[in-house]
Design goal:
503 residues; Aspartate Aminotransferase, domain 2; Aspartate Aminotransferase, domain 1; seven-stranded mixed beta sheet; four-stranded antiparallel beta sheet; globular
Length: 503
């Protein structure tokens, strides 16, 4: 059969996206050199350039159209690296004390490079045999690290929100007294009820919204003076809902809150859930991995009693984004919540097929970077790094307590909260007007600290007061970095207080 000239030309096809091996090697070596130089010089860079959106869009010529013709890949990668290294917020910087996003372990960076090279679809064992088994081993190792049963089920997901979502859906499918997967939520007059502390992360609202319960299905349990869920109030709400004919099914205990690192009374929550036959879910996205760390809050080990746990390796296991982890005491509950088998699936039912255990069919190889980190540092190394972070946050708290112009509020796990109080206001009574001014002062101070590039903090509300929040989940942060923070805050605070006084 004669082939057309166009089709014959495809016999030795050369695609514009391909890169020959020698060129790839040269480009890759150059890029690795750029990355290594960046990491080596990270301490000398601003934590963030604090540029505006308009400035960034100008750099990118954001209004331009898609290129008509291609460009040299080596030049493109060099330019992309320079762009990112000059115009990013660096959560790997030793003075990044902001959100609970850790420095990315270098071995994890290389792990992502390797994972993308093979590009396995870790949705079915047949499509990714060794990647699937590495993920299964990684899940077991994370469970062992926190003291959870190592024969649990689990999988890697994008982050804490998704890990909590997966556990929420497993709880709903298991505890609803009807087939909620088939019949939905409109087939019964009973309303499913969820219980969570007022300090719980907003994932719970998203879950109630996305999965059909509505946010009014959440019973918010007020936090006590230590930002922890109150078990007595929890019991009263459960009893009230049972009397009203509703169906309580899920209680969320937070193992390290986002705002202050507070740990709910997990043992007491577990006992209540056992008494009322409710699902006990532990949101341990931040704090779960510290359950066996010396110096961790008492009671954190209660996480091992949960029916499910959400963990974020890209928080305190120092993995590059994205990496969340679901742990499920009874592995069958994942399959009961997610498995479907259309006729076009022909995969071994006795193998691990992750499309049966979570919401994704196509799944990237997230586990490799976590697995490599666990192998490089080992259990002892991780416990030591987390203990160091906790010790540094504790030292910061003690410095703040002793400083005449800084007011310390909380210290839990590796999070410390505080605010700047000018010396001329320190002895003033805490009137409403004074508190309003201090809230404004510290809110504007937070912006000045960010713009300085010398540190990066976030904020929290504690007892209705706007406070500065320092979170250390960073193996690069040293005592020198922590000890420099109070001086920076006070210097910028004084300047700001003086300027506000002139208004």
């Amino acid at each position: 059969m004669a082939l057309s000239k166009d089709l014959e030309a495809l016999r030795n096809r050369k695609a514009p996206i391909e890169i020959p091996a020698d060129t790839f090697r040269d480009i890759g070596h150059h890029l690795v050199d750029q990355i290594a130089d960046h990491l080596a010089g990270l301490r000398g860079l601003p934590v963030t350039p604090a540029e505006s959106g308009a400035e960034i869009r100008r750099l990118l010529a954001a209004d331009s159209t898609v290129p008509e013709t291609g460009s040299d890949p080596g030049t493109l990668l060099h330019q992309a690296a320079e762009l990112l290294f000059a115009h990013s917020l660096f959560n790997g910087h030793p003075r990044f004390f902001g959100y609970i996003t850790s420095s990315a372990a270098p071995v994890g960076v290389l792990g992502d490079f390797l994972a993308a090279t093979v590009n396995p679809n870790v949705g079915a064992w047949k499509l990714a045999p060794v990647a699937t088994e590495i993920e299964a081993q990684t899940v077991r190792w994370i469970a062992e690290l926190i003291g959870y049963p190592s024969d649990c089920g689990g999988l890697l997901v994008s982050g804490g929100n998704m890990a909590n979502f997966v556990c929420f859906l497993a709880a709903r499918a298991t505890k609803a007294t009807w087939d909620v997967r088939q019949d939905g939520l409109d087939q019964t007059e009973k309303r499913l009820r969820v219980y969570a502390s007022s300090e719980t992360h907003t994932w719970i609202q998203k879950a109630a919204d996305l999965f059909g319960l509505g946010t009014s299905a959440i019973r918010w349990i007020p936090a006590d003076a230590n930002q922890r869920l109150d078990p007595d109030t929890l019991r009263r709400h459960i009893d009230d809902d049972l009397r009203a004919g509703d169906q309580p099914f899920l209680v969320v205990g937070t193992a390290g809150s986002v705002s202050t690192g507070a740990v709910d009374p997990l043992h007491e929550i577990a006992a209540l859930c056992l008494e009322y036959d409710l699902w006990f879910h532990a949101d341990g996205a931040y704090g779960a991995v510290a359950a066996q760390v010396p110096g961790a809050p008492p009671g954190l080990e209660g996480i091992i009693k949960a029916d499910s746990v959400a963990v974020d390796p890209h928080k305190w296991l120092y993995a590059p984004l994205e990496a969340g982890c679901v742990l499920m005491r009874n592995a069958r509950h994942l399959q009961s919540a997610f498995s479907y088998h259309p006729p076009y699936y022909h995969f071994d039912p006795d193998a691990i097929n992750y499309f049966d255990l979570g919401p994704q069919n196509s799944r990237g190889f997230r586990a490799l970077k976590v697995w490599l980190g666990l192998r490089q540092a080992g259990r002892t190394g991780y416990l030591r790094m987390m203990a160091d972070d906790i010790q540094l946050a504790s030292h910061l708290y003690q410095m703040l307590v002793q400083h005449p112009e800084l007011e310390a509020f909380t210290h839990n796990l590796s999070i410390t909260t505080f605010r700047y109080v000018p010396s001329d206001l320190r002895g003033e009574p805490g009137s409403a007007g004074m508190e309003e001014y201090l809230n404004r002062l510290n809110q504007e101070l937070l912006g000045r600290i960010e713009k300085s590039g010398q540190a990066f903090l976030s904020n929290a509300l504690v007892e209705g007061k706007f406070v500065l929040r320092a979170c250390i989940v960073n193996f690069r942060t040293s005592l020198e970095d922590v000890e420099a923070l109070p001086e920076l805050v006070v210097r910028l605070g004084k300047e700001l207080h003086a300027s506000l006084a002139e208004e």
